[in-house]
Amino acid sequence: MEAVNKVAVVGAGTMGAGIGQVCALHGCDVTLLDVAADALTRARKSMEASLSRMVKKGSLSADALPGFWEKVAFENELEKVSGADFVVEAVIENESAKKELFRALDGLLRPGAVLASNTSSISITRLGAVTKRPEYVIGMHFMNPVPLMELVEVILGHGTSVETHELTVNLCRQLGKTPVTVSDYPGFVSNRILMPMINEAVYALMEGVASKEDIDTVMRLGMRHPMGPLTLADFIGLDVCIEILEVLYKGIGDPKYRPCPLLRRMVDAGDLGRKTGRGFYGYED
After folding, report:
1. Dihedrals phi, psi of 28, to nearest 5 degrees
2. Are residues 140 and 253 both part of a single domain?
3. Which of 12, 17, 84, 142 could make an SS bond with 8 (beta carbons 3.0 to 4.6 A apart)?
């Protein structure tokens, strides 16, 4: 199967910028789209900082930078996706917003173009159902930070074709990632396992079982996790954790996925983690 050459990434947040960067570094012509001009500005700065770190570490030659920027276009008009072979949606983790975008993209993409969602929990089947191309709709859940994390969950919707699956798996390998194929169940594999752990850690904190520092230390030193669950929740965003838990709770119906009241209270207070400067821990920058 031929390599993917033209990729469009819709949504220039942290994930979209990372996906666009990795695609461009591995030979794809990339169009990064966002309706907000400031989001595109932040995405470019994020890429610049990431590439600079790679050069300093010796994992990227400074001579490669001009060629990289020749492969990346920043656009704020959705119509610019029309020439893409493969589109990755990376907007807010909200089903209504994703469905609205998929309807719009369905009318703009050329026949045969693949439409992938970077969703971490939302049904690929339901996203594909709002288009006229469910056989070309698939999930492609990258891990954060995209340039560093090796795994991509490839999620098969009910109508996803064998050819779309094969092309997506090959693209993952083209990008230097390891694809794992999963079925379309709430939370897939990663978040179905991860989010209950984070939720239980919040319950342990709320019930006074241990301090936040000690809960994280148990998981780091006792379970060899690179960071504790409360630190990780701050990194992900407590609002995102709530959204994923709600998808799990609604989709599976088991009360073990019900978000902890303390987690809800912190989100209501606007303490969302690193992105707001305060979550379970405080962050100056």
Report:
1. -85, 145
2. no
3. 84
| Residue 56 placed within a domain | yes
What is the domain range of residue 150? 6-183
Asked about 141 being catalytic, the answer comes back as yes
Whether 170 sits among the annotated catalytic residues: the reply is: no
Q: Are residues 148 and 263 in the same domain?
A: no
Instruction: Write the CATH number for 79.
Output: 3.40.50.720
CATH code assigned at 200: 1.10.1040.10
191 is catalytic: yes
Q: Tens digits of per-residue pLDDT, 171-203?
A: 999 999 999 999 999 999 999 999 999 999 999
Instruction: Considering the candidates 89, 93, 153, 243, report the single residue annotated as catalytic.
Output: 153
Full-model pTM: 0.91
The catalytically annotated residue of 141, 165, 199, 243 is 141
Q: Would 212 be classed as within a structural domain?
A: yes
Per-residue pLDDT tens digits for 85-102: 999 999 998 999 999 999
- pLDDT tier at 3 (50, 70, 90 boundaries)? confident
**Set 46, 118, 120, 199: catalytic member:** 120
Same domain membership, residue 259 and residue 176:
no
- Catalytically annotated residue among 46, 118, 123, 191: 191
**Residue 285 domain-assigned?**
no
Instruction: Answer yes or no: is pLDDT of 285 > 90.
Output: no
Burial label for 37, CB within 10 Å (0-12, 13-18, 19+), is exposed
Q: How far apart are CA 6 and CA 8, in angstroms?
A: 7
What's the CA angle centered on 31, arms 234 and 164, to 5 degrees?
A: 85
Last-in-domain residue among 155, 183, 211: 183
Q: What is the DSSP letter of 221?
A: I
Quote the mean pLDDT of the chain. Answer: 95
In the chain, the number of structural domains is 2
